[in-house]
Amino acid sequence: MNSHDSRVTKCEEVPVEFPPQYQPGQPGLEYLMIPRPVSERPGSSGSGKLHNKVAVITGGDSGIGRSVAYLFAREGADIAIIYLNEHADASETQERIRQLGRSCLTIAGDIGDEAFCRRAIGHTLSTFGRIDILINNAGELIYEEDFTNLSPVQLLRIFQTNVFSCFYLTQAVIPHLRPGSAIINTTSVAADRGYPAMASYSATKGAVGALTRSLAVSLADRGIRVNAVAPGRTWTPLIPSSLPPEFYMFYGSLDNPAPIKRTAQPYEIAPIYLYLASEESGFVIGQTLHVNGGEYSGL
């Protein structure tokens, strides 16, 4: 383990405490994090569940997106990762996917821009010839203790990234999806559990959940399955780049509201995306699967 890991669980070799650290801005850089997120389950191997599939993953350079990309590659998929400007993280992810024996396309740009989203889908199609899975995962988070301080510019920006991008990318990819394809959106426990300092983020994730249910119904007759994953506290670059240290330093302490009193690592979230992307979930549509250590239990 990293020398900065002050404490780990006995059953899992993962960190549960995180020292104060500062990032230059969102969405954050994984290579700067102390400790680094755990992206792969040690000793894991694939079984061909996504053999020769092609997956587009926004935010695939780091955090949950990176872990999903690694797991999908192990299962036989080629990957296109869309990211903003975290070039070092993207290069690291691309190299690891190639080591796993699959191809990886990296596309940098702003998913809040419709034209870019269409170009990204077109680039993926011209490279791989098909798309089978779309993971709308990238997001921004605004931490603002005084709700009245949120500006119209901030609200527009966070909805562009977290919600509008789901519309843009889904609209661009639908004509190219075949029966059996899957769209998986990342929402959050914040959509159901009140976080006073994350009102705008929670609102966007609630919108993603509603969009998921509506799309699932409208696309079912095409054989396209739409579902969502709602992670709880997970150690990703979005945390140190968005939240004050006092919010995340003791994610493993006794005041953690989840029965499993530690933050998740990305590799613990990724298998749910694999389930929803594979044929094993062929009868599952419009669902939001919560992976949060039991954190949400109502108000």
Automatic annotation (TrEMBL):
One of its GO terms (biological process) is bile acid metabolic process. InterPro entries: NAD(P)-bd_dom_sf, Sc_DH/Rdtase_CS, SDR_fam. Keywords: Oxidoreductase. One of its GO terms (molecular function) is oxidoreductase activity, acting on CH-OH group of donors. Gene3D superfamilies: NAD(P)-binding Rossmann-like Domain. Belongs to the short-chain dehydrogenases/reductases (SDR) family. This is NAD(P)-dependent dehydrogenase (Short-subunit alcohol dehydrogenase family).
